[in-house]
Amino acid sequence: xxxxxxxxxxxxxxxxxxxxxxxxxxxxxxxxxxxxxxxxxxxxxxxxxxxxxxxxxxxxxxxxxxxxxxxxxxxxxxxxxxxxxxxxxxxxxxxxxxxxxxxxxxxxxxxxxxxxxxxxxxxxxxxxxxxxxxxxxxxxxxxxxxxxxxxxxxxxxxxxxxxxxxxxxxxxxxxxxxxxxxxxxxxxxxxxxxxxxxxxxxxxxxxxxxxxxxxxxxxxxxxxxxxxxxxxxxxxxxxxxxxxxxxxxxxxxxxxxxxxxxxxxxxxxxxxxxxxxxxxxxxxxxxxxxxxxxxxxxxxxxxxxxxxxxxxxxxxxxxxxxxxxxxxxxxxxxxxxxxxxxxxxxxxxxxxxxxxxxxxxxxxxxxxxxxxxxxxxxxxxxxxxxxxxxxxxxxxxxx
Length: 399
Description:
By secondary structure, this protein is mainly alpha-helical.
């Protein structure tokens, strides 16, 4: 439109000049068109000079934005720092913000007031971030953290305490009964193996007289009787002995340095085992998949027990003044502290990012953002210039 108006004014000027002698009023038309061309060309030059050299000519003080992009980045960064990223400004703004109440309202009723769209948008953003992150690097960090936590865990005292607690409550008895019953089944299903062992180890005289069969029968009968007695009588001496051994093991696990060292070595061997590494890999994959599912389907997540717990937390945040004040105070301190610690880094990030942009890229972005509005300057310049020319011509005629 702006260029079209300039072309129209040029045509009107040429026509008015050609027919200037026909009527005195044509002089006013000519003056308007002439001044409109001057105003339109001047503003075209001004608008174009912001983004590039007019007509490609290296005229001084043109292509202002490309030439000054570094200074623009520094100025923008300094503006952010002075008006947004100073601890005093952040503290003043945070003082009037009720972060806890807002979080409470969101958790208690996430679909109210368009918050559902906010939740879905945040969920999509979280899912995109999880998808975009380098899985090998992120997974390696997560799996390394899991392995480090396992290595740092004092397993021996925990095992000892668990064993003592189980024995004190009698929770080890079903396990011991199961072992005894299983042993009885093993003896019953492997009688031939026991007989072959006795036959192979018996002397020639025992085999010749057939006494090896009697010895095998006696051995099998004795084993069965021992196991049945242990199963039937809780006070059986061998069961008592097993309980004593378990109690000693629980004590050693908690207090014996040598035993603890053995458990630590065994734990290290388990962690280094390829099967354990595959288990950790699977654990990470399951956790990542669960996070993605929750992020992509927030409604399903909020519908379960976890969602109910979040809604209860939201209600509590709205009703408990003391808790809300504590959270708001923590949010203010955390935000102000982050601003004090990382405000300069954020400013440098903005400045360095703009510096790293190509000049043509900066020009394209700014021109796409404001260039359309700047064309109205050319339109207004054409009209205002024409009116000024018309006024000057009127003064010249009158005087």
